[in-house]
Design brief:
heterotetramer; A alpha+beta (145); B mainly alpha (346); C mainly alpha (364); D alpha/beta (567); A: 145 residues; alpha+beta; Immunoglobulin-like; five-stranded mixed sheet; five-stranded antiparallel sheet; 2 helices; disordered C terminus; C: 364 residues; two-stranded antiparallel sheet; 15 helices; globular
Chain lengths: 145, 346, 364, 567
């Protein structure tokens, strides 16, 4: 085996590994938990609007979210766009991009934080299910992307 | 030292590993609280159950037809014999005897056709046997749906079609051999009759290979060209071996059923050949050579592993890996035999 | 006239099945549009697996019963992807990438073992499939979740280790079929699946034209001559099996994403049987097979698959009968192909004997 | 030697196989453009010599060779056949090494295909490159033109006539750019007369282009016609080399088959078959046998009761086909009568039941059960055909094998024939060739045959065993009056035990000679040159001297045992 072929072969293997990593990165599925609960950041309280329509990556939820609700949405990849509009006033619309760390499986997305233009690092948080779930079970709705 | 090495070479490494493994299992039995005598009784029951099916492989191996993966054909003949016997309403010993006689008739017919086919595909017998076996099982499945059996024991009760998938032989000839002369061995039943029957059939086969015709059959397997030059009709010998093998398969499955208690129809016979093949190979047989020693050793080792593995594994690891181990051991053994360099490759 | 006869003899299997199906379709009473849609879907689902069988046939190793090894590799890839929650097309591609090294390793193993059993590659591959199934079960049922970390508890059995019997592939389910939606005359066309099949077909066609392909053909026709000419016979055979195994792994991923679930312990078991039967029904033999045979085979086999139970029910009043008949056909067509192959081989031996007699043929 | 510069010189080549000397001190030269005919009986060492030239693995594995090979004046030691090919030496084998489903072009360039470039070469190796078929066709057409034969580059080999296959093989060799020397092993054996003509003229064409050719053939007429120079090998030695022009088939044949030997001792042992006018035990009329490589076309002869009859001839001429056909091992037709009663041909059982037996030339495949013991091997035929070694049980319903009788019988023959073994139960596969042959003889004797065929009784066995085998045959003949037909490639052997010897050529009996006939006559018959011109006197003389010189040598170094397998 010549050095040239050794280099090229190593290159192919590395290329495949990089490809695998890329696929992992862009294909990694995340479960978003869109949350309209009131959130307090640095002593400042953010409240959601009474009713908002939310769409993630161009897909709108079937029905608007009121306060203190949590909705699950499956997405894939790191980059996402969220559009939040006031149900009462369609003009009042917020469109934001956010990035999910690759290894964060379940992501709590705080609608009030985005609406209230809180610093971007507070928009999302890893979600670890507690033994007692905050959101009432009957309000959980499952969406498939 | 050289002696031991020679013995090891003769005995074969895989066989040795399996024997040591089985021995280990038996030694562990008392430590794990597994009932030793119960396990032993279980092993013997299984030997009596499966022995003849393993024995059925010998004639075809000896005549050079290879491993009879088409044993399911014999099993089908046995199923026909058993169902016909039940349909006729024979009970007890007579039911059993009739089942065997009927199955032998079917076995002879199937075996003849099968033998004629195998003679035309010399060299490719094993794969063809497998798939001929498989397709016959499926044809028979259609037949089980269509055959006009009437016995209420066998047909679906609630207006279903054809025969049941499993038919109980309770009340006909369940344990007819197992219970014959059986005695209690430390609180567990020893299946004397089944073991005796297996030995008896083995004796007949042993005698057969000491006759002129059996000698000729062995020579055909060893070197068909030599046999032909000595005036032997190779094709005839091969057909006879296939017929005997199929008939033994038919008998074997009935003995199996009397112990098991059920007749399994439809897909039941599909993979019947594989454990038998694995057993005889574990016993040290080759693709072209098999002896009764191989049969005995093989059936003891194989059934021993099958019985002991789940017992010990469950007791020690709380883990039932017996299925996986069975699959790996039996197919590994067949693979080993297939890839081994055999001297006579005809 | 003679040519017509020859055509019938050479395509006897295909013609037989065409006749069989043309009787069974009206008997089944299934609507034509339904059948057409099903066939379009199944072409996309199964063709890749069937095409995976072609190279070993070219290399003279017969029907690669060892392809189930590739299927296992594919399933392992999918299980990992499910565990890591990689979704959609990237998930499928990643599953293929994961299966790749496993397939290569298993293919190498399979090829090496077959090289030790020259002349009985088929039965060896067949048994090897069973054997590796044991190893696979060990891996899937005992190692996963204990030795190999599994993050997603939904995949595991309740006892805490071992993959569940059924793995839901919801996140990749039918992504190939729906990625490029196309509807023609009310029928869904799985465009991307077809592109995959086109790609593998192109690969096979191209591969035949390379030196690898030429060597494989040479090895397939006469090992001794090829070896004497300096072709690395064993290596060439192993490469044929490796490629077949890798393709079988990809094929299994495509197959399963269409079905949407994996039966952990037995999704792969029947794949070898069905793929081989499919190829043979398409008119292939143990020594010759083409992409055409594969595609025709898929259409005929699956038509039979679809209509046999209904036809059985309508004709004889038993759906089970159709089911058994279908299985009989799968096994029977393999048995038939093997018998024909052996007959041909015996005839060829006779023929080459006759040729040795020399140029003069004045023997009375 | 006053010839032009040699491109290949063999200097004192010798070779031993497992202690058997098969070649000793062979030297000759080949010059560019020269056609050298290499002739010799089977086992004379031609094949071994060529194997040494090509440095086949089996030569290394058995300890290499003696002497040196000079290629273009430099000593070479090729590491393997590919090295020799690389250096420019090509070989056309006897059996076709062609892929049936490939075209002429594909076969010519097998594993030397011209390839397109590919960017993936470094990753997957050069085999990933696609074939440049256009270029291949062009090159193969060029090579075909060079040979001047009517070959179609696109035709599949399986659809070709035999001759074209041979041409394809030769084109393959000359298509190599560097080829300087081509070895042709029996190239005309499978060709028709006209095809052979085409081949010979194309070989002349090649030679004219400066390519040297070593032409190995049993067809001596072609050798005389085609070659510039002839080298005769016998018993592993070079007997003679001389220009082909001016020599004749007869002289070459005589040189090949050996020397005149007629000792008193041999004449004495023949007494048993002299005199009495016995009726024929076996008469064969118009026999044909379809045996691959040994076709018998039309053979008629008869053997007297109690006679030891010899059948000789070169390999491939059909002498082996005769016993195989009569014994039903190969498809045959014609009339064979035993003691005047015609016998049905085609089933091995018939002749056995009528009291005939056969010791096959193919010990391993036909003669023995290698995996069984000596006792089984010896007694099996007698048991199956004549119901010996059996005990009736259950009132004769079954025939029980009597292992004890078999054991004793085997023991007796082990003693009689001096079979070296650990006992009657030893696996025959573990015995040496000579002892295996003795087992084969014992198997035939166990049948107590009336007529016994023994085919190549001494092939591949050592001197001691050879002697015992031949002596046993003679003894058996004189003790039981058994009619024996010995088929052998070794004329000397036949002449030492038989009274009459038939020589087979091209599937026919070319003539039957008494053992006393001069060697040259045998040679002429073997070469199929009955009606050739007058003898070449000077060479005849030469031959006589040669034979006297070699006589002593012959006795101490038995003919090549291993090389004998060549056909």
């Amino acid at each position: 085996m010549t050095l040239r072929s050794l280099i090229q072969r190593t290159g192919v293997v590395l290329g495949l590994l990089v490809l695998a990593a890329c696929l992992f990165y862009i294909g990694k599925g995340h479960t978003l938990l869109l949350d309209t609960n009131t959130i307090t950041i640095d002593g400042k309280e953010f409240r959601s609007l009474p009713s908002v329509t939310v769409s993630v990556d161009g897909k709108e939820l079937d029905f608007p979210m009121s306060r203190a609700e949590r909705v699950m949405v499956d997405v894939s990849g790191p980059e996402h766009t969220i559009v939040i509009a006031d149900e009462a006033d369609a003009e009042k619309k917020v469109e934001k991009n956010f990035t999910i760390p690759t290894f964060m499986d379940r992501v709590l997305v705080s609608i009030p934080a985005i609406l209230g233009s809180a610093p971007a690092e507070y928009w999302i948080a890893p979600f670890t299910p507690d033994p007692v779930d905050h959101a009432p079970a009957e309000k959980m709705q499952y969406y498939k992307e | 030292m050289g002696h031991i090495k020679r013995f090891a070479a003769d005995f074969g490494l895989p066989r040795m590993i399996i024997a040591v493994y089985l021995l280990g299992l038996f030694l562990m039995a008392p430590m794990t609280g597994v009932s030793f005598s119960g396990a032993l009784s279980d092993v013997f029951t299984r030997i009596g159950m499966n022995g003849i099916l393993v024995l059925a492989l010998v004639p075809m191996i000896q005549s050079g037809c290879g491993l009879n993966f088409g044993l399911s054909l014999g099993v089908i003949a046995g199923l026909l014999g058993a169902t016909v016997s039940i349909e006729m309403g024979y009970v007890g010993v007579w039911g059993f005897v009739f089942a065997i006689l009927a199955s032998q008739a079917f076995g002879a017919i199937f075996g003849f056709g099968y033998g004629v086919l195998l003679n035309r595909v010399k060299g490719g017998e094993m794969m063809i046997a497998t798939y001929v076996g498989f397709s016959s099982v499926m044809i028979m499945s259609i037949a089980w749906l269509a055959l006009p059996f009437k016995s209420p024991v066998m047909i679906w009760g609630y207006g279903g079609e054809g025969l049941r998938t499993t038919i109980s032989v309770e009340g006909f000839w369940r344990h007819i051999l197992n219970d014959f002369l059986s005695f209690q061995l430390a609180g567990h039943k020893f299946p004397t009759g089944a073991i005796l029957f297996f030995l008896l059939v083995s004796l007949v086969i042993w005698a057969f290979f000491h006759l002129k015709i059996g000698t000729a059959m062995t020579a055909v397997g060893s070197n068909p060209i030599y046999a032909r030059a000595s005036g032997i009709d190779i094709n005839k010998m091969r057909i006879i071996s296939v017929v005997i093998s199929t008939m033994l398969g038919a008998m074997g499955i009935i003995v199996y059923q009397q112990s098991f208690g059920f007749i399994q129809l439809y897909d039941g016979p599909l993979y019947m050949a594989f454990p038998a093949v694995a057993a005889i190979l574990i016993g040290g047989a080759g693709v072209n050579k098999a002896s009764l020693t191989n049969v005995f050793l093989g059936v003891v080792l194989y059934q021993g592993i099958l019985t002991m593995t789940p017992l010990i594994f469950n007791a020690v690891l709380k883990l039932d890996m017996s299925d996986v181990i069975r699959i790996i051991v039996s197919n590994g053994m067949i693979l080993y035999a297939l890839t081994r360099k055999t001297k006579v490759l005809k | 006239m003679k040519r017509l006869r020859l055509f019938f003899i050479e395509n006897a299997v295909v013609i037989l099945f065409v006749i069989l199906i043309s009787i069974a379709i009206p008997a089944s009473g299934l609507p034509g549009k339904f059948l057409l849609q099903e066939i379009l879907t199944r072409l996309g689902r199964s063709s890749f697996l069937v095409i995976a069988l072609l190279l070993p046939i070219m290399a003279g190793m017969g029907l690669n019963f060892g392809m189930v090894l590739g299927a296992m590799a594919g399933q392992i890839g999918l299980i990992f992807v499910m565990d890591w929650k990689i979704v959609g097309i990237p998930g499928l591609l990643l599953a293929m990438l994961i299966s790749l090294p496993i397939s290569i390793l298993l293919g190498w193993l399979c090829g090496s073992i077959m090289n030790r059993a020259k002349g009985r590659e088929m039965v060896t591959g067949f048994i090897l499939g069973f054997f590796m199934n044991g190893v696979y079960m060990m891996f899937a049922l005992y190692a996963m979740g204990s030795l190999i970390p599994v993050m997603n508890p939904e995949l595991l059995l309740s006892r805490g280790y071992g993959i569940r019997n059924v793995v839901d592939l919801a996140s990749v389910r039918q992504t190939l079929e729906t990625f490029i939606p196309l509807k023609v005359a009310g029928l869904n066309i799985p465009v991307l699946s077809y592109l995959f099949i086109a790609a593998v077909s192109a690969f096979i066609v191209w591969f035949r034209k390379t030196k690898f392909g030429q060597d494989m053909r040479a090895v397939g026709q006469n090992r001794a001559v090829a070896g004497a000419a300096g072709i690395a016979v064993d290596r060439t055979r192993i490469i044929a099996v490796i490629i077949s195994t890798v393709l079988a792994g990809f094929g299994q991923i495509i197959f399963l994403q269409n079905l949407g679930t994996i039966n952990t312990t037995n999704s792969h078991e029947q794949i070898g049987l069905f793929s081989i039967a499919t190829l043979l029904i398409g008119g292939a033999s143990v020594t010759e097979a083409s992409i055409c045979n594969a595609l025709i085979g898929v259409i005929l086999f699956h038509l039979l698959f679809l209509v046999a139970p209904m036809a059985g029910k309508n004709l004889i009043g038993s759906a089970m009968l159709g089911e058994y008949f279908r299985q009989f056909v799968s096994y029977g067509v393999i048995a038939l192909a093997l018998v024909l192959y052996e007959w041909k081989r015996v005839a060829q031996d006779e023929n080459s004997r006759a040729r040795l007699r020399g140029g003069r043929t004045d023997v009375p | 030697m006053d010839r032009i510069k040699a491109i290949l010189s063999l200097r004192g080549i010798g070779k031993r196989f497992y202690g058997n000397r098969v070649l000793s001190d062979v030297s000759f030269d080949v010059a560019a453009g020269q056609i050298l005919g290499l002739v010799g009986e089977n086992g004379a060492g031609k094949s071994t010599l060529m194997k040494i030239l090509f440095s086949m693995p089996e030569i290394h594995e058995t300890g290499g060779y003696e002497g040196s090979i000079l290629w273009n004046d430099r000593e070479v030691r090729f590491k393997g056949p590919s090295d020799a090919l690389e250096a420019g030496i090509g070989m056309v084998h006897q059996e076709f090494s062609l892929i049936p489903g490939f075209s002429t072009t594909e076969n010519i360039f097998l594993n030397r295909e011209s390839l397109h470039k590919s960017v993936m070469t470094d990753i997957f190796g050069s085999r990933i490159r696609a074939l440049d078929r256009e270029n291949m066709t062009k090159l193969s057409q060029r090579a075909i033109d060079k040979l001047g034969v009517p070959l179609d580059p696109g035709m599949l080999v399986k659809e070709m006539p035999v001759g074209h296959k041979q041409f394809t093989e030769i084109v393959r060799e000359i298509s190599r750019d560097k080829v300087k020397l081509i070895v042709l092993d029996e190239p005309t054996a499978v060709l028709t007369e006209s095809e052979a003509e085409v081949l010979l003229s194309s070989l002349r064409l090649l030679a004219a282009e400066g390519i040297a050719i070593i032409f190995i053939s049993h067809r001596l007429r072609e050798v005389v016609e085609l070659c510039d120079w002839v080298v005769v090998l016998r018993d592993g030695k070079k007997v003679e080399e001389f220009p082909a022009r001016g020599s004749s088939v007869k002289t070459i044949a005589s040189l090949m088959v050996g020397r005149e030997v007629e000792t008193q001792e041999q004449a004495e042992t023949r007494v048993y078959a002299e005199g009495k006018e016995e009726p024929p035990a076996l008469s064969v009329e118009r026999l044909w046998v379809d045996m691959p490589g040994e076709t018998v076309r039309d053979v008629t002869f008869s053997v007297k009761k109690g006679e030891i009859f010899g059948i000789g001839g070169l390999a491939g001429q059909g002498k082996l086909g005769i016993p195989n056909g009569i014994m039903g091992l190969a498809p045959a037709g014609g009339t064979v009568a035993l003691h005047g009663k015609p016998m049905r041909l085609g089933s091995p059982r018939t002749p056995l039941e009528l009291g005939m037996a056969f010791v096959s030339e193919d010990r391993r495949d036909v003669g023995l059960l290698l995996d069984e013991g000596i006792d089984w091997n010896i007694t099996f035929s007698a048991m199956q055909v004549q119901n010996k070694f059996l005990k009736p049980i259950l009132g004769g319903l079954f025939q029980w094998r009597s292992d004890g009788e078999m054991f004793d019988f085997a023991n007796e023959y082990i003693r009689l024939l001096d079979i070296k073994c650990t006992g009657p139960r030893q696996r025959v596969g573990n015995l040496s060739g000579g002892n295996q042959q003795k087992v084969c003889l014992a198997k035939a004797f166990a049948l107590r045959p009336d007529v016994l065929f023994v085919s190549e009784p001494t092939r591949g066995i050592d001197v001691g065993a050879k002697f015992i085998v031949l002596e046993t045959l003679k003894k058996y003949n004189s003790e039981y009056g058994t009619t024996i037909v010995i088929i052998s490639s070794e004329l000397e052997e036949l002449r030492s035990v038989c009274r009459r010897i038939a020589v087979v050529y091209e599937g026919r009996i070319e003539g039957i000679l008494p053992h006393t006939a001069p060697l040259s006559e045998f040679g002429i018959l073997m070469a199929g040159a009955k009606d050739e011109g007058p003898k070449d006197e000077s060479l005849e003389e030469n031959l006589r001297n040669e034979s006297l010189r070699n006589e002593s040598l012959k006795n101490e170094s038995p003919a090549a045992a291993v090389g004998r397998s060549e056909r």
